[in-house]
Amino acid sequence: MADKKDPETTPAAGAQQQNMPGLQIIAQYVKDASFENPNAPESLVSGWPAPETEVKIAIGNRHIKDNIFESEVNFQVEAKHPKEKSKVAFIIDLHYGAMVALQNIPQENIHAVLMVEVPKLLFPFMREMIADMTSKGGYPPLYLAPVSFETMYIEQMKLLREKQDAQKAGNA
Hints:
This protein is of the alpha+beta class.
């Protein structure tokens, strides 16, 4: 009986895998985290209605060296009394980052990978941290709804193009 070679282990397949685009998370970390509970214990008593929550997200990245980059996601969560907006139940500020190595990713795609793919990988960890922070602050855990980092990126790029077009029109 003839030996059958596994196509995934042949030298040609190994060379193909080496040329495949790849992303490796080297480290992920909390850069900064804070939880403010300014109206405790009043905000924790049963007379307070469930707070209205506002979530702001900012994403950034930077080149560290060679093929190593940092991607950072910032979540700001503010929960307020639904009727008395000046009364804040809690504020969360979480800056979470990852150092990643990118392999064989075309230069024109690196920004999108750092602004979309890396945050998608980090989101479950940030979501868990925010739920834990609210729980330890005396509130029910706040589980953030899934975030479409793709939509955020598309909107950001659209606004950037509009700004560039407006600048070009102003210079003409």
